[in-house]
């Protein structure tokens, strides 16, 4: 019946829908006819892949997908390319900026680079990191953050909702971003990242992983890598609309292709690789809605310098390595310092379904270079043994890059910002902060320009430390130590595998004097690649430290009943025996002595028995006849007890 | 009657020993982080953190680190500042605690002498002088003060950076003030002791009894008996000194001197206002009094910190199911309160001893006990060495205390540092310690009651 009625109603509904839609369609057509400009301003999507050989025989692959949507007033609720879920998220929670990253593995700042744009913006701490900047009054932010974590956790199949509790997120005041009050930051260092997080992330792309560059994302090969960081960055402003950047950074080790001719050199030659050998897939055509779809290949500065020393310049095919298809364009970095060679980016564009582009690099001779490092290598570690106390140490070691900087300017000072969040069960004594410069203890006020501490509150807030250090460039090493006590938790507060220990999220170290911006010279075209535009942004160099694993003492999880009974026994013992002592009458002993002297020795049990029998006798005599007060009282109690018993039994 | 020979030499030796320890092992004793010595309430490290936070214009209580009094902060804070070179940070504090310990010992000695005098007086009244001569009395003041000074627990507390010597001083000050009937001093001690560690609040009962009835004496019934005897015999003999004595007993026993008590209450009020005023001044910009109460008394009453100590409550509350938590919190705290009235009724004639029993009970059941508390009640116990001479189990208790204080650090080391033991090992020593304290309290009370009974028998005989 219902079906029939529906089918009858259907044409009418269709008609109605058509009638409603006509003006919209007309206006849409009219708008589209208005010119190409509107199309330019509409939703856009671009996909890019950035490849770079790393000095330690690995290859960096960085996928960059960018979707933009103009301010929502014009577009209404409908989106062609832009993921609706994200747009709703931005609208509902009034997000200005948001960054969510899922990372597995640790970015190796020493050999993969520390000061280039990729490492300073895309190297993320292990686990989940989320920060968001809201466009809301300060009072509402915490509640919104909680809702946001739940929404994101549903969207990405991850336990981001653990960031809801006030013990795990924090509002940094200046060390993370300069002077914002409506920012919240949270990190879950132990969150495991897997395909279940990647799939929803891919769903936000217009072509998912069915076409375009995303089709390279073969799960086994990308999760086999040394580092895997999947990131989602949102910026929303009134003027430009929402910009969604989805990046995936992986560091892969290409399989060594055995070459019999060079068997002796095999070990020293970098392994040759191609896109198809690394991802076990090929780029087959582009994602059709994408405005641009490019692959970039970078030779980093130090590599170019080494090549120039050997006299090869910027050729992509020389006696050391071959790049297999010829690039379409070449971008050279322009450095303010003249007379220095800089990194080169090759662009590859022309791939189609018929002619798959298999970008590959074939090494012919051993070649060694080093990456561009951050001015200071940052590491953090725990000191001390045992489960009672310890210290956190952060050490900054000067690197080559700093020496260059030092050569540039004399009498300079380095500024370093350190931002660290410590969970409440690690009870940090902030007064024990010690600074060692080149191994010598230094008075804190000489080095620390600015410090902001917000101590942790048991079971309420994590503790945060924001520090600004300033010291001369000539300093080789700086170390900070902080003592802490390890807390003891209630048995319910321990995670399932309590003996594994607890993670302290990575500290963030920022070098405000150093920037990772690049500017490119390209003769004919203006650069319109979102990735290269992003490289040109002036970003400060930042490094994340290792996450720390703090083992905490555990109580015996099987003991609650024993502990309760033992403790209560001791308490009862105390209470009972003390009352017994107090209750004992003064004359008791004398009376006892007297009675002992007078009567023959009667044992306790016969005495009791005789007393009891005499009472019984008295009662049997007394109850039927006497209406004495005592007897009636007894009867009353007996009846009451019987009534209560009856009540219990009947229920 | 005479004091212990060479008292001053021994006392000076105790002080010298402390100073020697302080100078010889400035850094490697690490007593300040021992759970037996420093509790979250008394740890000087936490005090230093609180002081640092306050200097950084934050509330000293932010960060769940410091839970002590704000006055202590401004009093000791300066001394805890880390100096880059020279003495270790807590050196000056420990030096001050040596002085504090010495003052405490002197006050205990003075209290003991007062007790001895009153004992002799009452024995004279009761015609029991032969008892005094027979038992070969030790001067309880000297003895107790030496016990306090040479007690290893006191020494450890004094060396290990913990503020409990100050708490102990305040408690002893209250008792001494009450014994010598100096109401302002008693009020000062009581108010500050309560302000510092809350539990001495129950000492108001013995202090008022002391001020009202006077020092420890045999039960008043005996005096009544004696006076009735004396009056009957006095009528016969017309002896002047006996009637004088009876008059004296009349004065000392029967009247509860309300004047003294009112005087005390007035002073309590004054000191209370003073403490609150000082605290509110020192916390003016950072938090306020309500935060202070929440973070000090609230912290004590709700047992928030579950780090191990020599008591049993930390493990209990780490293990107990959350929905029973409030119930057991009430049970444990009410246990202290429940014993106040029965003890006060039975021991009202021995108020000083009553104070000792209260201190022992509260240091057994308090949420963050430390050996500093035991040091205090063991010192006070020695004040009653004459009355408690025939206490049962004293050797067992002595061995027990030694055993527990040796085993407890071993178990803690096995559990925390080596990871070969587990929490139950350490908790077991805590249980044993609680049992020992129970036996001590019960036995001392029962032997004190027995002593009174014996006196009564002697008087009646």
UniProtKB/TrEMBL annotation, chain A:
PANTHER family found in the cross-reference section: GPI TRANSAMIDASE COMPONENT PIG-T, GPI TRANSAMIDASE COMPONENT PIG-T-RELATED
Name by which UniProt lists this protein: (wild Malaysian banana) hypothetical protein
Transmembrane segments: 561-582, 629-649
Keyword Transmembrane helix part of the UniProt annotation: yes
Matching InterPro entries: PIG-T (IPR007245)
UniProt entry tagged with the keyword Lipid biosynthesis: no
Gene Ontology CC annotations of this record: GPI-anchor transamidase complex
The entry's keywords: Membrane, Signal, Transmembrane, Transmembrane helix
Biological process per Gene Ontology, one example term: attachment of GPI anchor to protein
Superkingdom: Eukaryota
Cleavable signal peptide: 1-28
One Pfam family from the record: Gpi16
UniProtKB/TrEMBL annotation, chain B:
Topological relation to the membrane, as annotated: Multi-pass membrane protein
UniProt KW Iron keyword: no
InterPro entries xref list: PIG-U (IPR009600)
GO cellular component terms given for this protein: GPI-anchor transamidase complex
Record's keyword terms, sorted: Endoplasmic reticulum, GPI-anchor biosynthesis, Membrane, Transmembrane, Transmembrane helix
Pathway: Glycolipid biosynthesis; glycosylphosphatidylinositol-anchor biosynthesis
TM region positions: 6-25, 91-110, 169-191, 198-215, 256-277, 297-317, 323-345, 352-371, 391-411, 423-442
Family: Belongs to the PIGU family.
Annotated protein name in UniProt: (wild Malaysian banana) hypothetical protein
Lineage, opening ranks: Eukaryota, Viridiplantae, Streptophyta, Embryophyta, Tracheophyta
């Amino acid at each position: 019946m219902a079906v029939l009625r529906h089918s009858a109603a259907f044409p009418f509904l269709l008609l109605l829908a058509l009638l409603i839609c006509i003006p919209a369609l007309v206006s849409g057509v009219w708008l589209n006819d208005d010119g190409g400009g509107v199309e330019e301003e509409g939703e856009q999507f671009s996909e890019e892949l950035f490849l770079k050989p790393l000095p330690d025989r690995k290859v960096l692959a960085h996928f960059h997908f960018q979707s933009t949507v103009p301010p929502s007033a014009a577009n209404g609720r409908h989106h062609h390319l832009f993921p609706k879920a994200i747009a709703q998220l931005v609208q509902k929670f009034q997000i200005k900026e948001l960054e969510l990253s899922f990372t597995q593995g640790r970015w190796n700042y020493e050999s993969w680079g520390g000061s280039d744009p990729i490492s300073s913006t895309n190297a993320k701490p292990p686990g989940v990191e989320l920060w968001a900047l809201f466009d809301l009054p300060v009072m509402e932010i915490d509640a919104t953050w909680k809702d946001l974590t739940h929404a994101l956790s549903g969207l990405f199949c991850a336990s981001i909702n653990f960031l809801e509790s006030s013990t795990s997120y924090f509002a940094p005041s200046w060390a993370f971003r300069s002077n914002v009050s409506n920012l919240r930051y949270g990190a879950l260092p132990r969150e495991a990242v897997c395909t279940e997080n990647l799939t929803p992330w891919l769903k936000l792309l217009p072509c998912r992983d069915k076409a375009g560059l995303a089709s390279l994302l073969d799960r086994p090969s990308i999760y086999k890598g040394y580092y895997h960081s999947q990131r989602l960055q949102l910026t929303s402003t009134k003027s430009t609309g929402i910009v969604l950047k989805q990046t995936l950074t992986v560091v892969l080790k290409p399989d060594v292709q055995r070459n019999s001719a060079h068997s002796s050199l095999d070990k020293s030659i970098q392994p040759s690789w191609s896109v198809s050998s690394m991802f076990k897939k090929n780029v087959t055509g582009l994602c059709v809605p994408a405005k641009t779809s490019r692959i970039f290949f970078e030779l980093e500065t130090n590599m170019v310098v080494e090549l120039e020393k050997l006299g090869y310049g910027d050729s992509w095919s020389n006696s050391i390595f071959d790049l297999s298809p010829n690039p379409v364009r070449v971008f050279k970095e322009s450095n303010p310092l003249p007379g220095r060679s800089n990194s080169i980016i090759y662009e590859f564009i022309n791939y189609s379904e018929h002619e798959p582009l298999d970008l590959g690099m074939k090494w012919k001779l051993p070649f060694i270079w080093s990456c561009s490092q951050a001015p200071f290598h940052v590491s953090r570690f725990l000191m001390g043994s045992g489960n009672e106390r310890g210290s956190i140490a952060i050490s900054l070691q000067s690197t080559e890059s700093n020496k260059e900087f030092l050569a540039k300017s004399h009498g300079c000072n380095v500024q370093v910002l350190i931002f660290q969040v410590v969970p409440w069960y690690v009870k940090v004594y902030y007064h024990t902060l010690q600074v060692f410069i080149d191994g010598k203890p230094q008075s804190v006020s000489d080095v620390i320009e600015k410090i902001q501490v917000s101590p942790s509150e048991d079971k309420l807030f994590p503790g945060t430390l924001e520090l600004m250090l300033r010291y001369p460039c000539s300093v080789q090493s700086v170390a900070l130590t902080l003592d802490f006590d390890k807390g003891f938790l209630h048995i319910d507060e321990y995670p399932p595998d309590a003996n594994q220990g607890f993670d302290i999220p990575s500290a963030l170290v920022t070098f405000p004097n150093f920037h990772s911006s690049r500017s490119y010279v390209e003769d004919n075209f203006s650069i319109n690649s979102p990735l290269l535009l992003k490289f040109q942004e002036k970003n400060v160099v930042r490094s994340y430290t290792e996450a720390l694993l703090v083992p905490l003492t555990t109580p015996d999880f099987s003991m609650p009943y024993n502990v309760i009974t033992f403790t209560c026994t001791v308490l009862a013992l105390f209470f009972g025996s003390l009352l017994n002592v107090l209750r004992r009458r003064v004359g008791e002993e004398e009376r006892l002595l007297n009675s002992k002297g007078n009567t023959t020795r009667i044992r306790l049990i016969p005495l009791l028995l005789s007393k009891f029998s005499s009472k019984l006798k008295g009662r049997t005599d007394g109850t039927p006849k006497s209406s004495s007060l005592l007897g009636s009282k007894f009867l009353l109690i007996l009846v009451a007890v019987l009534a209560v018993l009856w009540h219990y039994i009947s229920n | 009657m005479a004091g212990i020979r060479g008292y001053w030499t021994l006392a000076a030796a105790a002080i010298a020993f402390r100073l020697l320890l302080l100078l010889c092992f400035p850094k490697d004793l690490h007593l300040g982080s021992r759970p037996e010595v420093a509790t979250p309430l008394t740890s000087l490290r936490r005090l230093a953190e609180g002081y640092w936070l306050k200097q950084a214009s934050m509330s000293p209580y932010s960060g769940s680190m410091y839970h002590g009094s704000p006055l202590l902060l401004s009093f000791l804070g300066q001394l805890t500042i880390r100096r880059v070179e020279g003495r270790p940070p807590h050196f000056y504090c420990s030096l001050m605690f040596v002085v504090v310990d010495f003052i405490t010992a002197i006050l205990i000695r003075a209290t003991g002498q007062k007790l001895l005098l009153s004992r002799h007086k009452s024995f004279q009244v009761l015609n029991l002088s032969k008892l005094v001569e027979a038992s070969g009395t030790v001067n309880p003041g000297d003895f107790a003060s030496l016990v306090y000074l040479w007690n290893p627990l006191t020494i450890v507390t004094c060396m290990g950076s913990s503020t409990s010597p100050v708490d102990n001083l305040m408690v002893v000050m209250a008792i001494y003030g009450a014994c010598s009937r100096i109401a302002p001093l008693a009020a000062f001690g009581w108010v500050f002791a309560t302000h510092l560690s809350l539990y001495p609040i129950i000492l108001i009962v013995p202090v008022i009894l002391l001020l009202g009835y006077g020092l420890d004496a045999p039960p008043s019934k005996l005096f009544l008996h004696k006076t009735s005897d004396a009056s009957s015999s006095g009528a016969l003999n017309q002896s002047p000194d006996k009637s004088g004595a009876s008059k004296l007993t009349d004065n000392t026993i029967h009247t509860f001197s309300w004047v003294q008590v009112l005087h005390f209450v007035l002073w309590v009020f004054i000191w209370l206002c003073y403490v609150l005023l000082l605290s509110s001044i020192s916390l003016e910009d950072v938090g306020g009094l309500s935060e202070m109460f929440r973070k000090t008394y609230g912290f004590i009453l709700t047992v928030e910190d579950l780090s191990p100590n020599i008591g049993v409550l930390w493990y209990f509350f780490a293990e107990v199911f959350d929905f029973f938590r409030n119930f057991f919190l009430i049970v444990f705290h009410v246990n202290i309160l429940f014993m106040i009235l029965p003890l006060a009724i039975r021991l009202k004639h021995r108020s000083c001893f009553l104070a000792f029993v209260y201190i022992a009970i509260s240091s057994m059941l308090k949420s963050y006990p430390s050996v500093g508390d035991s040091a205090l009640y063991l010192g006070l116990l020695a004040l009653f060495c004459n009355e408690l001479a025939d206490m049962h189990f004293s050797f067992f208790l002595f061995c027990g205390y030694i055993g527990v204080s040796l085993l407890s650090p071993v178990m803690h080391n096995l559990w925390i540092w080596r990871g070969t033991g587990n929490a139950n090992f350490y908790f077991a020593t805590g249980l044993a310690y609680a049992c020992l304290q129970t036996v001590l309290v019960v036995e001392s009370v029962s032997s004190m009651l027995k002593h009174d009974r014996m006196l009564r028998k002697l008087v009646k005989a």
